[in-house]
């Protein structure tokens, strides 16, 4: 792995610069632009279809029939209710499921959904699979609240059908994005400290007015990995004149409609400084595990994106995420 990292660092740096230059040229018409969860399963697919808050999951057989009973009643879920329903661990499936339904009720999201948890290794994530396309702006607001009230949840995604052939597209909100959307520097997890803080968070979500773009649906594996790196990394770095990525695919594994990609990745954000096109921010070579979902039409979009933890947990994290063959 170390040898591969050394070789990749040089190759990816060149690739990132070339990609960034290409994007800069395209954007300017060819001219220079102006200036700790213990749950161990990989994909805990839990049927969480709109059961009422507090209702045992195993007792629900057809949750969608009860959706109207709790939807359209914005005032029935309060900041205090949400504060009481907060949870430390995303792997607390019952607690997480109850919170999801309360948040969906608050934002009048009536479409039935199931939830999927990524609890193998940080960053932990939550994904909602909708049977029908929900209101994307409402889901964006709901995702911000869920990230705030689930202590170790780093991201919330949701997908939905786009045609009758079974093709789907997805949207994604990360912990990093929440601060940008709320336009407030306060750490998102601090809103779970009191009912008043939750009320403040709910108030701030009303200022979110622009829905996110869905994740890119790529035609090839390489394009899908490229899109995943760009979309995942951009919120964490400066927004400059151009961005680029480089990657080296080490191994892939296919399972049903998923493709798990083990890769070395690099991201860069670029701008002009004193007449020179330079890297203003970005990463070095980072190992990543990217799970892609394949649609019936062959298009691919990224579902999960995992990188090793920093510091003393790095080695153990590498062993958890990557097979020995890599």
Task: Explain what this protein looks like in three dimensions.
With 326 residues, the chain is of the alpha+beta class. Helix content is 32%, strand content 25%. Strand 4 (155-161) and strand 5 form a beta hairpin. The strands form two sheets. The chain has a five-stranded mixed beta sheet.
In which range does the helix fraction lie?
25-40%
The radius of gyration computed from the alpha-carbon positions, rounded to a whole number of angstroms, is 20 Å
Number of helices: 9
What is the rounded distance between the termini?
Answer: 7 Å
Largest sheet: 5 strands, mixed
Shape summary: globular
Strand proportion, as a percent range, falls in 25-35%
The computed structural class is: alpha+beta
| Oligomeric state | single chain
**Uncertain residue segments:** 2-14, 21-73
- The strand order across the widest sheet is 1-2-3-4-5
Question: What order do the helices and strands follow?
Answer: HEHHHEEHEEHHHEEEEEH
The number of strands is: 10
Q: Mean pLDDT across all residues, rounded?
A: 82
